[in-house]
Amino acid sequence: MKRLFLTSSFSSVAKLFEDFADEPVKGKKLAFIPTASLVEKVRFYVDDDRKAFEKLGLIIEELEVSTATTEEIATALERNDYIFISGGNTFYLMQELKKKGADKLLIEQINNGKLYIGTSAGSIIASPNIEFVSDMDETKKAPELTDYSGLHLVDFCFLPHYLNFPYKEVTQKIVNEYSQKVDLRPISNNQVITILGNEIKTLEKPKRATKK
């Protein structure tokens, strides 16, 4: 049974993760893949997510796909309880996964029931195709990528950071352009899409009470 926890920002919705995992997560081992962020100048979100996992008590094993061998990737994905892929450039991430055959390894692990957590780019790649984010991520950062197919873990296209700074205008542009062409699911940084078998839910971090 597929178990996917797809976020725009894991650190923003980390409190929802334990309920979804439906087991004590403290002491669980996590394959942490930061590859998408390597070509980005801004990378604070990777550290934010790492700290959020550490706060939950997970044991983190960093797995850099671009420098690891296919065998090393396969072994790391197998021995860890959960798999996480960070945000960054979606096209670069997909390029590196395909170069190492890690895309097929991920699909196999996830189809066999391993819990997968994605943030931003790491969630977008679960889509059937990633071309719809070409206005948000630079395709030129992945010069070797000729095929924009995603992992196709879900039948919809995941759009992160909907109406969040600094992506407010570009995410609305993507919605305007693609919402009639594909099954587009935009979510904000405070939301998560969970997949448990055939059950798909969109959850939101509880808001603090504020005066109107």
UniProtKB/TrEMBL annotation:
This is Type 1 glutamine amidotransferase-like domain-containing protein. It comes from Capnocytophaga periodontitidis. The keyword Ribonucleoprotein does not apply. Pfam families: Peptidase_S51. Gene3D superfamilies: 3.40.50.880. InterPro entries: Class_I_gatase-like, Peptidase_S51. The keyword Hydrolase applies. Keywords: Hydrolase, Protease, Serine protease. SUPFAM superfamilies: Class I glutamine amidotransferase-like (SSF52317).
